Amino acid sequence: MNVNGKALKYGDNVDTDVIIPARYLNTSDKKELAAHCMEDIDKDFVKKVKQGDIMVAGKNFGCGSSREHAPIAIKESGISLIIAQSFARIFYRNSINIGLPIVECEAAANEINESDSVEMNFETGVIKNLTTGKEYQSEPFPAFIQSIIEAGGLVSAVKSGKF
Amino acid sequence: MSKMTMTQKILAFHAGLESVTAGQLILANVDMVLGNDITSPVAINEFERLGTGRVFDKKRVSLVMDHFVPNKDIKAAEQTKKCRIFADDMGIENFYDCGETGVEHALLPEKGLVTAGDIVIGADSHTCTYGALGAFSTGVGSTDMACGMATGKAWFKVPEAIKFVLTGKPKGWVGGKDVILHIIGLIGVDGALYKSMEFTGDGVKNLTVSDRLCIANMAIEAGAKNGIFEVDEQTIAFLEEVGAKKPVVYKADEDAVYEREIVIDLSKIEPTVAFPHLPENARTFDAIGDIKIDQVVIGSCTNGRLEDFIIAADIMRGKKVAKNVRTIVIPATQKIYLECMQLGLLKDFIEAGAAVSTPTCGPCLGGHMGILAKGERAVSTTNRNFVGRMGHPESEVYLASPAVAAASAITGKISRPEEVAGDKD
Questions:
Q1: Which of A68, B163, B193, B343 is the most exposed place for a label (fewest CB within 10 A)?
Q2: Nearest in space to B302 (alpha carbons), one of B335, B261, B330
Q3: Do B223 and A25 touch (CB under 8 A)?
Q4: Range of B384's domain?
């Protein structure tokens, strides 16, 4: 499976409060959440994001609250992949559990620039920057996590008896 | 033979394994699954998709309405309604709403719902609080909560650990909050990413259970999977007093493997404040300067326990809060509220000019009950000072102990407790 999109770049320690502020947590409606995604860090995100775009960030992405509303808002806004130097652990878990692909790759996270055209192949773990031509090898998902992704998330994995 | 940390021993037992090593993926039985009024509605949707029709154990699911309680608006009311109907349908015994509720991580220990050796997963990042009682407890998301409610199990990657050897005794007004802010300042907000923080050493006995709950509570602010304290007589006495299940005590093996070891001399820790917008921006008063404030919040799962209000009242008693400093005091549970009343602390707060609220997470996450306007500053005993955490994206939160918060309420600027109340006996 391949994803391909334009990079939207952020810094270190992007927390779940800026991804989806608590003032919008009185709903679990995906579309409503997506309408306020990244509002406190990037007011224009909702306007500029396009289906398939790829988020690129620094270290400890998704730190703070365990709100699953954060990866839900990002996924619903059209983001197909997040590449970061590192992720906060609850955010990592939540993203896998809802089927939002996320990958740690320090070199790619550092070198990809805003608006670069980026492609990733999930089978090989290869990330390609189509704007600069540079390729990066990311760590493939452990088999255990791969099986959750293949099932389409944790609920489907449990339902299908794979868990 | 096993060379396991405290955390690894608890995980091994619950996975039915003789031993585990860092990095291993395991499926473990959990003793308690927790959710609140924000995370549970999402979990209920996922639970319904699973279609099991029942929770794994009616006694081992806790739904605590605390974030936007008492319901702040119609949407929030719909969310708690959804939780209430679900709890009724499933026969969930530990459902707490307005009137009997409290901030979840203060409430569960108080109700005796957690004991040493337990595994607790909660759809709230501060679930790591119960490590203070010798449990493995960790925050998860709503999907994990849903699967936990259905199966009584969760998957974990066995973490490696950082060993914190605590020595000495905190001096004066210094408490658990100063200790954890100091530690996060030392290692950073991702200093313990994916890892356990294990607290041991002679100094542990000089920290009250309340201090330990505060310290374990903020392990997540260093990125940790969990924070855990070695169990001692104080822990056992606390668990007996609240009527918790019989504790199972796990000690790390002598030759347990730690990623690193950090010695913390508690006697050297000064009152510490974390500046905006990260908990790692810890400063002591030699580097704080003159910072005027608009609001003070004393409460939350971090510092909303009785001991916190005793300290705050000792500083505020007989004085008035500074003009235009909105001071909001929020006992974390109904029991704590009642105890504050019986001890006369509520009178102290109200006479000083503070507002006292029913238990709620409220302002900590910018929910309600004390939101900041553009450009305003708050000193807060809560746990996060991210951009927009307590209100407007251009407001600021300074994290501090109840002693520093109370002193700051009186002077109107970030202040040392000694400045207002002299040395502590």
A1: B343
A2: B330
A3: no
A4: 274-421
